[in-house]
Structure formats: C-alpha cells, structure tokens
Amino acid sequence: MGIKVVERHGNSFKEKMYISAIFTGMKTTLKHFAANLSDANRIPTVCYPEEKPTDITVRYRGVHRLTHRKEDDSIACVACFMCATACPAKCIEIVAEERVDGVDEKIPKIFNIDLLECVFCGYCVEACPCDAIRMDSGIYSLIGDCRDDFIYNKAKLLSIKGISKEEYSLAK
Amino acid sequence: MNTFLILLPLVLTLLYSLATVPILVWMERRVAAFIQDRVGPNRCNIGGIRLGGIIQSVADMMKLVFKEEFLPSHIKNRFYYLVAPCIAFISSFLTFMVIPYADNITLGSKIYYMQALPIDLGVLWFLAFAGLGVYGIILGGWASHSKFAILGAMRASAQVISYEVAMGLSLVSMLITYGTIHLNEMVTYQAQSFFIIPAWGVVIQPLATIIFIVTAFAETNRAPFDAAEGESEIVAGYLTEYGAMKFGLFFVAEYIAMAASGALIVTIFFGGYQLPYLNTSDLINNFETILWLIIIFAVVTTILFLRWMKKNSRFASSSNNETKIYTTVIIMFTTSAISLMAYYALDFSNSNEVGVMILQFMVFTIKLFILHFVFIWVRWTLPRFRYDQTQKLGWNILLPLSLANIFITAIVVVVGVNYGN
C-alpha cells in the first residue's frame, strides 16, 4: 500500500536504438525553427527599447505616486508613517506638519522616496490606510544623471499620473 | 589563367575553412535562437548595417584577436601549452585540403584539379589530420596543469578511442563500394544513377552513412559528444586555462573541423559537387538550358527572399532604412548576375567548362551549408552523452554494425564482380 511503481523507460529495443527518439526530438526543434524563420513576428521576444512592453497592467509595480482627494484635489496622505514603517529598504523619508486648511489633521511637509534604495516590494502600498500611495504609474524605466535625480519629492510624486481608471484616492 | 586555376582550389580552401567561420558562428547563434523561440544576435552594426547579425561574429573575432595574451604563471610546459591550439587549428585546416570542390577541368590539353592537394590518398589524409586534431585538445588539457583541463583532456582521449575505429571501418565499407580512395573518383562514381535514384553514398550504404555521421560528430567534439568541453560539468574542459586568441584558435578549429567533416560527408555520401542525374559532361553539353533554369531559379528565389525580408523586418532600427538598402543591393546583384548568365547563355562561348566549374562550386557550397545546418540542428536538440555512454555506443553498437556492414558489402561486391554481368 502506498507504493507507486514508476515505470522505467529506456530498456526496450526501440528505445535502445536511440534513432526514433532522436528523430522525434529533431522534428520538434525543426518545427520551432521553421515557424520562427517563416514568421519572426511570432517570437515573443520584446526588442527593447525599439519595441516597448505591452504587458504593463495596473497591477504592475512601477514608480510610486501620491494620490489626490476627489473632493478638493489636495494630497490624500495624512503623514501616518505607515509606509515608512513597512518599508524594508527604509527609502521613504516623511516629515509631518499640522494641516491648517481643516480638511484633515496632518499633512506631510516632506515626502521623499529614494528610488535607488527602493526594492519595489509594494509594502508601502499595502500599508497605506488612505490609499494615498500607489505604484500603478506603469513607469518601468527610471533614468537620471545623478543620484539626486532618483530622490522623488512630494511635488514630483503628486504629479505622476496612474494608468488605472481610479485616478483619485478611494479612501473614505 | 594557368596560375589562377592552380591557385583557385587553395584560395577556395581558405574561403571554405576560414571565411565560413563567422558565418557558421552566426548560423549557430541564429538557429539556436530560432529553435529556442528567441531572436538571436541583432544589435551589432557598422553604420546601421547589421547583415542580420553577421557583424556580431566579426566583432567577436576582433575582440579575441585584440585581447591581451595572458599566460597563467602556474603553467610549466609553456611550449606545449602554446603549441596545442596551433595543432588543433592546423590539423583541422589541413583536413580540408583534399576535398574536391568541382570536377577536374580540361582546358586545351591541360587538366586542372579542383582539389588543393590532388593526391591519391584522399580519405587517408582526412583520417590522419582529423585524428590529429584531438591530440591538440589532449595536449592542451594536459599542459594547462589544471584539474578541469586534465579531466577534459581525459574525456577527449576516452572519446577518441571509442569512435575512431567505427569511423575508419565505416569508411572502409565505402572504399570497397567505390573501389578507390581518391575522393574525386568517389564523386564521379556518385554521378551514376541507381535505378531511378542517384547513386549517392547515402542510398547505397545507409548504415555506413549513419555510422560515419555519428562518428563525425564525435570527431569534431560537438554536441552530443562535447563531453571534453562539458561546460556544465567541468567549467570548460580543455579550454579552461585558455584565453584570447589561444582560445580563439581552439574555437575556430572546432568550426573548421565541423566544416571539414561536413565537406567529407558531402563528398562521400551526398554526391559531392554533383547535381542528381547530371554528370559533368551532361552539364557541359546542356549548359545553355541549365543557365536559363538557373536564371528562373534566381529570379524566383530573389522575389521570395525580398518578400520574406520585408515581412520579417520586425526589428528595424529607426535611424536608417536597412531593408531598403538590402533590397537595392540584392536587386542590383541579381540583375547583374542574371545579365551575365544571359550573356553566356545567348552568346554561346567556349567557356562552358569554367561555367560548369562555378556551378559545381555552388552545388557543393549549398550541400555543405545544408549539412552545417544539420550539425547545428543536432547540437541544439540532443543532450550530451556521458563519456561512458559514448564508449558503449562506439564499441558495443557502432563497431559491430560497421564490421557487419563491411562483410555484407564485401560479399555483394565480390559476388557482383565474379558472377554479375
């Protein structure tokens, strides 16, 4: 009971001849070769950067963005430090201050993400209670001339648009 | 004309062995890529011209030539270490010398041989130098004074004793069939027809063909018999301690050995430079008709190729329109070639022999490249044989089969000579 007898292959005369197995294998590879030779467009390779990836969905973890409130288009972040606490790379720098316009209690004075430190794990997005930080920008390519170019500040993060239909923060 | 025709086979040997290496490397990469659903080399370019990736292999060769010649300090036998790649290279290069590229050509009263070395020993020369190539590998592995290298060398020597016998014996049965060891006479023999199929070696002796092709793969140290290199097990085997052009010589030697084995297989088993059903005198007498057929063939292939290129130019760079340049060049080349051929076909001149010679070069080249494709195709299909499996295959299977083949061949030939018509 409980013993599964595995059938051993390779002992019959036909299998020991190798020839038929070899020709089966060669038929398979030739099929791939002929199909790709006659139509190079079926090769799934993306020749980046001439060809851009087509499979970037809203679930793709790209560059972060800070969302806006639907009511007054102001920043949705309440500077609760949840994202900075969840961040395993310690790349989020927040300095909080009192929010004076009466919409909420706190607002980040400084919100910097060092994208050279960031590991794009998405924990900050999971941690955020206000749906204020998202990674649905669809930006997969980061370019800069110096290290400072990769530190995205509040203004920069607010200006990034998302590729999902939900433009504003969904937090109530 | 005299000097030219004498030097021509030598020049062709250089072309077939050295000039085809970049093309073979490119073919290897592209065929591998297509078999594995990839694209292959398509970035390297000179002024935007990429030639479908051939520039990449030229760039690789340039890199190997200009790299620093580095000698590991632990190597005591520097002479052997340095001479080993030269042995591998020279012997695989010399293997090519006996291959007939076209039939002997008679101009006036003189006969010119289209072999670089028109000696009677054809096959023996091949066996001698193809066998010697492995000694370069063994010597290099031993002189490298490294465990991986010596393991590779021992695998190479274990392999060489297992296939050489079967290889020689399968050739013996071909020698009995053809009754000669002169390669050009073998090709002439294959111009006959056997009932309605051309009497190529592969038709008369299918078993010897299979045995020889299998052993030729082992001879060139290519997959599935590349245990000596075995990059997944012993780093790079005999190549471990080699760098720069010393590695480059081994690398080129492997491809030349493959080209030479392919050329010999074409010569002995696939009719050499012969077109099926047409021997050399037929070709010379009906050269006009054949030229017109070639012109039609050239037009059709060019149109098909241009359409194929237009359809598949997926990765065109934006800076300049490569496809347009290629189309122009190809159309210009085909037009000039066709007009030249039409000139010869209309104006019946006396240079039919030279025309037939060029045609036979072409036929030989096409057959050779088909065989190269098979070499590459097999490499990217089959996994590597363990070296004890290679020995078992060589001694237990191929040797008895080739011996049996010799007996049967000899009986048939003796009966045919004594009791046939």
How many whole angstroms does the radius of gyration of chain B measure?
23 Å
Query: Roughly what is the average pLDDT of chain A, rounded to an integer?
Result: 87
Question: Most extensive interface: pair and counts?
Answer: A-B, 21 and 22 residues
Radius of gyration of chain A: 26 Å
Distance between the termini of chain B: 44 Å
What proportion strand of chain A? 5-15%
Number of helices of chain A: 5
Main beta sheet of chain A: 3 strands, antiparallel
- What is the CATH class name of the domain at 65-159 in chain A? Alpha Beta
Keywords:
heterodimer, A: 172 residues, Alpha-Beta Plaits, two-stranded antiparallel ribbon, elongated, B: 421 residues, mainly alpha, 14 helices, 2% strand, globular
What's the structural blueprint in terms of helices and strands?
The complex is a heterodimer of chains A (172) and B (421).
Chain A: H1 13-16, H2 19-38, E1 65-66, H3 82-86, E2 92-98, E3 106-114, H4 123-127, E4 133-134, E5 151-152, H5 154-159
Chain B: H1 2-35, H2 54-66, H3 78-95, E1 105-107, E2 110-112, H4 122-143, H5 147-178, H6 183-189, E3 193-194, E4 197-198, H7 201-204, H8 206-219, H9 244-269, H10 280-285, H11 287-312, H12 322-346, H13 352-379, H14 387-419
Antiparallel strand pairs in B: 1-2, 3-4
Helix pairs in contact in B: 1-2, 1-9, 1-13, 2-9, 3-4, 3-9, 4-5, 4-9, 5-8, 5-14, 8-9, 8-14, 9-13, 11-12
